[in-house]
Amino acid sequence: MKRFDRLLAEVRELPGTKLRLAYQAGEAVVSFPDGRTQTIHVRRVGDSYLLTSRVIGSTKAGNMEAADLARRIWSRNRVTDVVEFTLDESGRLIGCIEQVAETLNRNELEFYLTALAQECDRLEYLLTGRDQM
After folding, report:
1. Residue 59 gets which letter from DSSP?
2. What angle in degrees, to the nearest 10, is found between the helix axes of 106-128 and 66-79?
3. Nearest-angstrom CA–CA distance, 43 and 32
4. What pTM does this model have?
5. Residues facing residue 72 across a β-bridge
6. Domain 2-128 -> CATH class
7. Where exactly are the structural domains of the chain?
8. DSSP code of 102?
9. Beta strand 37-45 with 48-56: parallel, antiparallel or unpaired?
10. pLDDT of the chain, 133 residues: tens digit per residue
């Protein structure tokens, strides 16, 4: 995680966007101009970094019809190239990106943070109509 921390040490804004970034100890909070936020958790899994962000919690996901939720996840996965949507072990709908740790560079990381935040925020809004925090 030291490499990851170094890559984000001085990043406060994601280049080419109006997104603000606050990063500390494996947690990146991406803020959108309209006040919405998306929190991205980062952890090392073997030789890779796993970036995840919650779209909806387990209660909301559990209250949705299973077939409808599966169809929505499948539909979003078909149109997103970088982000994969799935249910985690707690039943939350999350977006995730896995990247080989050794080859990750700052440009890639900024791209991944932007893509993950935007895609998760977009799906969150489509499912709930609001920012879930």
Report:
1. H
2. 140
3. 23
4. 0.91
5. none
6. alpha beta
7. 2-128
8. T
9. antiparallel
10. 677 778 877 778 888 899 999 998 889 999 999 999 999 999 999 999 999 999 999 999 999 999 999 999 999 999 998 999 999 999 999 999 999 999 989 899 999 999 999 999 999 998 987 655 5
